[in-house]
Amino acid sequence: MHAVIPLYPRFTALDAVGPYTVLAFAPGWTVTFAAAQAGPVTDDRGSLTLAATASYADVPAPDVIVVPGGPGTLDVMEDEALVGWIRRAHEHARWTTSVCSGSLLLGAAGLLGGRRATTHWALLDLLRTFGAEPVSERVVEQGDIVTAAGVSAGIDMALTLLARAADPMTAQSVQLAIEYDPQPPFHAGSPATAPEGLAERALALIT
Fold first, then answer.
1. Selection from 116, 142, 5 nearest residue 66 by Cα
2. Is 138 among the residues known to form the active site?
3. Any idea where the DJ-1/PfpI domain is (predicted)?
4. How many Cα atoms occupy the beta-carbon half-sphere of 79 within 13 Å?
5. Is the pLDDT of residue 207 over 90?
6. How many Å apart are CA 79 and CA 9, to the nearest integer?
7. Span 13-27, mean pLDDT?
8. Which of 3, 31, 65, 100 is catalytic?
């Protein structure tokens, strides 16, 4: 199985690295970071750079597409090099997935019409722009499209996908290998559980 993660300026690192870690640990899987041109791509914090080892043209037909999100998403919504690649590669892929605002790029590629989908809680309503039904869930499976909520949900999505693509035991083995056993110190990871007024402070960190 070959998974491709497209990178673009100001992507969120965990959106890409979380699923990469899960899928790269899976037996028989390879994961490639791609961009319009091979080379370094810097994340939204400006201090972490990942190397795209392939261009979009080099990877026209992956088995799995994982589109990360980040503040840079809105800047590339009309980037035909990226959006066009997603649209074309989807025709060959077994699964097309996204993390966080990456689902907006799936929408821009015309892949979410009539489907349930999720994204970061602050952007859920934007999914309606693409004819999708916004769903406030951690992972949403809709046939060959799987979307994940914000940032850390990409790990959940990748494990969910791995269970489908291989089997639950493989997914659980990877989960144990990476010791993914979330025990957050606060119940503040969702607007439904966060203290009053925290959403505004959180938004200031990501805009």
1. 5
2. no
3. 3-163
4. 20
5. no
6. 12
7. 98
8. 100
pLDDT for position 37: 97
Domain 2-181 grouped into CATH 1.10.3720.10: no
The pairing of strands 49-52 and 39-42 is antiparallel
pTM: predicted TM-score of the whole model, two decimal places: 0.97
The dihedral built from the CA positions of residue 191, 194, 200 and 205, taken in this order, carries a sign that is: negative
Domain ranges for the chain, please list them. Answer: 2-181
CB–CB of 139/160 below 8 Å?
A: yes
Cβ count near 33 (within 10 Å): 21
Burial of 187 (0-12, 13-18, 19+ CB in 10 A): exposed
Q: What angle do CA 69, 156, 59 make, to 5 degrees?
A: 50
Instruction: Supply the angle between the helices 13-25 and 168-177 in degrees, to the nearest 10.
Output: 120
| CA 73 – CA 166 distance, rounded (Å) | 30
Tell me how crowded residue 118 is: count the other CB atoms within 10 A of its CB: 27
